[in-house]
Amino acid sequence: MAVLFRIGARGSKLSLAQTEQTRARWAALLGVETGALPIVPIVTTGDTIQDRRLIESGGKGLFTKELDEALLDGRIDIGVHSLKDLPTRLPDGIVLACVPEREDPRDAFVSLKAKSLADLPAGANVGTASLRRQAQVLYARPDLGVVTLRGNVDTRLRKLEAGEADATFLALAGLKRLGLEDRAASLVDPTETPPAACQGALAITARADDTRTLEALRKFEAADARIEIEAERAFLEALDGSCRTPIGALARVSGGALHFIGETLTPDGVTRWRRTETLTLSADAIAQARALGARLGGQIRDEAGDAIVMDHE
Question: Which CATH number fits domain 107-187: 3.40.190.10, 3.30.420.10, 3.90.1150.10, 3.30.70.100?
Answer without folding.
Answer: 3.40.190.10
